[in-house]
């Protein structure tokens, strides 16, 4: 575990190595943190869970606890805060890691180490989102690879399957408990929607014709003057999955295509049942689902309520599968990502589904 945490830290620092301090510290977009805030948050989270909670040590910098608390400091205000910068930030990252090594030597490796490791890996993707929005991505990072297989469909049989993570190994609280879900037969696209197919929608009036858009989506489109697809659709490989589209756009596209966005249960059923049956492209882009983010029956918060529970409800939609910016350790068939339906900063696309008539 120590070596894996060290590898994750090298990766984190390498991903931002091309950025100067001024770029790390500025607000690239109001819905995203300054990258330097994310780096300080990674250190504060590690110190809280390993140094303080596991090791019983006082916080290395107790004065930073509220500043790096995601609920105390919403993204919209983080750019105005006196967060750690430059050498002070780098020194704090190193000092926290030294304490982690000392506690690990004394207490051994626990689930909290896995929690901290995955937290860092998830925040590196958030930092890559900011870089994507600001046209700052390092070369070759955050670009989905072309996916073959054509626009064919796979029939998935109905029945009952066990959804969610089992009792063994590490999983987040919202992935448990595993429970039975009954589904009718359905079809799912062999690959995610590609840039070429999305351009057909765009150039066919997809962003101009009202019938394909829900009332809420059309209101969002007009309020934010969304009149075209993301630039990445036009500049990307035609056979690569579309990326940086919102759930509102995904839903409108699905209506245009005579299909629908799959539920997360359908998505998980298709991927776990797949096993060589030709479903391609999983892990290139997060795939929007139709499902609101909610706890499974019997949900229990762990290790703290704020990880999942405050986000449950109709406001957020679930995404599945991981992306080209997601570390493989984070992505799994049961992992649940979530965000607001209007968000475009995610490395997100979609895979279509249809009922079997």
Terminal CA distance reads: 50 Å
Stretches with pLDDT under 50, minimum 5 residues: none
Globular, elongated, flat, extended or rod-shaped: what is the shape?
Answer: globular
- C-alpha Rg (nearest Å): 21 Å
Count of all domains = 2
- The CATH topology assignment of the largest domain is paralog of FGE (formylglycine-generating enzyme)
Architecture per CATH nomenclature, i.e. the level-2 architecture of the largest domain: Alpha-Beta Complex
Largest sheet: 4 strands, mixed
Tally the helices: what do you get? 11
The share of residues in extended strands comes to: 5-15%
CATH homolog superfamily of the largest domain: paralog of FGE (formylglycine-generating enzyme)
Rounded average pLDDT: 93
Number of strands: 9
Strand order of the largest sheet: 7-6-5-8
Helix content: 25-40%
* Structural class category: alpha+beta
Order of helices and strands: HHHHHHEEEEHHHHHEEEEE
In the CATH hierarchy, what is the class of the largest domain? Alpha Beta
Task: Write up what this structure looks like.
The protein has 357 residues and is of the alpha+beta class. The chain has two domains: 2-133; 153-355, paralog of FGE (formylglycine-generating enzyme). The protein has helices at 2-15, 21-25, 35-54, 75-78, 86-107, 111-133, 195-203, 215-223, 231-235, 247-256, 264-274, and strands at 153-156, 159-163, 179-183, 186-189, 286-293, 313-320, 337-339, 348-349, 353-355. A four-stranded mixed sheet has the order 7-6-5-8. A three-stranded antiparallel sheet has the order 1-4-9, covered by helices on one side. It has a two-stranded antiparallel ribbon with strand order 2-3. The N and C termini lie far apart (50 Å). The mean pLDDT is 93.
């Amino acid at each position: 575990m120590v070596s894996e945490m060290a590898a994750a830290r090298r990766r984190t620092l390498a991903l931002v190595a091309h950025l100067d301090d001024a770029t790390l510290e500025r607000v690239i977009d109001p819905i995203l943190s300054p990258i330097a805030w994310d780096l300080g948050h990674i250190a504060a989270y590690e110190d809280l869970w390993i140094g303080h909670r596991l090791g019983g040590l006082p916080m290395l910098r107790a004065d930073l606890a509220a500043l790096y608390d995601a609920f105390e400091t919403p993204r919209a205000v983080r750019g105005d805060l006196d967060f750690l910068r430059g050498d002070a930030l780098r020194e704090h990252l190193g000092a926290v890691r030294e304490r982690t090594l000392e506690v690990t030597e004394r207490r051994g490796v626990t689930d909290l180490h896995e929690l901290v490791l995955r937290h860092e890996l998830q925040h590196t993707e958030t930092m890559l989102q900011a870089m994507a929005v600001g046209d700052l991505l390092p070369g070759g990072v955050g670009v989905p690879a072309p996916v073959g297989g054509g626009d064919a469909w796979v029939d998935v049989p109905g029945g009952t399957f066990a959804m969610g993570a089992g009792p063994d190994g590490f999983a987040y609280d919202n992935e448990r408990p595993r429970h039975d879900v009954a589904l009718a037969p359905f079809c799912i696209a062999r690959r995610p929607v590609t840039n070429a197919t999305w351009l057909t929608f765009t150039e066919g009036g997809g962003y101009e014709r009202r019938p394909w858009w829900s009332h809420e989506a059309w209101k969002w489109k007009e309020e934010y003057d969304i009149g075209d697809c993301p630039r990445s659709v036009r500049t990307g490989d035609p056979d690569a999955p579309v990326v940086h589209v919102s759930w509102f756009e995904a839903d409108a596209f699905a209506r245009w295509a005579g299909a629908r966005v799959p539920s997360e249960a359908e998505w998980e059923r298709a991927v776990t049942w797949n096993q060589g049956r030709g479903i391609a492209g999983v892990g290139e882009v997060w795939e929007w689902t139709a499902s609101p983010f909610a706890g499974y029956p019997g949900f229990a918060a762990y290790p703290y309520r704020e990880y999942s529970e405050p986000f449950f409800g109709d406001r957020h939609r679930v995404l599945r599968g991981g992306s080209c910016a997601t570390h493989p350790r984070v992505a799994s068939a049961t992992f649940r990502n979530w965000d607001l339906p209007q968000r475009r900063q995610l490395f997100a696309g979609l895979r279509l589904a249809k009922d079997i008539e």
